[in-house]
What does this fold into?
Amino acid sequence: MNLNKQLSPTKSLLSLFTVIVVIVAIISVLFISNSANQKKQHVTANAETKGYPATFPFISPTPTIPCTIYAAPNGLTTNNGRTPSTPKPLCVYQGASDLAQPGDTVCLMAGTYTETSACYPHGGTATGGYVTYTGNYNGVATIEGSFTNDSLVRIANNGSPEGSYIKWQNTSFNCMTNTPSAIKVSGGGHHVIIKNKGLV
It folds into this structure.
């Protein structure tokens, strides 16, 4: 009995030591978790100030296309073409192409553009810069048509605003019956860049 009484304080000390170790472990876990949350909030806040989605892990969004003119399959010539909600048709009189000036970017909104004659897009100048026509703004833009002996898009420098300093990109083309080609550069057209063109 005397031996047990002598061991009791030792057991009490061991129990107290165990409790302290457990408390220290819990505090350490809480500290690490709090540090991780603060780091996450810091990264999220930085993402928000830079205009990126506040997501974690951090993922950069697709860069925004700097549109100055908007075209849509159901666009109206009476629209001003300056916002996605007021688009113009693409290649008609007083359409988006007619509005384009050197340095402009014409964004083709998603859908199918059914043309009844070749599109002669306005171009830019050496001093004013290219006119860029681009799809992939909010989905796939497809130009289609069926007419004999002409291309869906004709880029030709014939003394008018068409034919020079044009970039055409990110667009699909559907050459229907009798349409020989999607895009043709002729008549002295120069400084023309065509990329990411698809045929359907």
Summary: The first helix runs from residue 2 to 49. DSSP finds two helices and nine strands in the chain. Confidence is low (pLDDT under 50) at residues 1-5, 39-63. The CA atoms of residues 58 and 87 lie 34 Å apart.
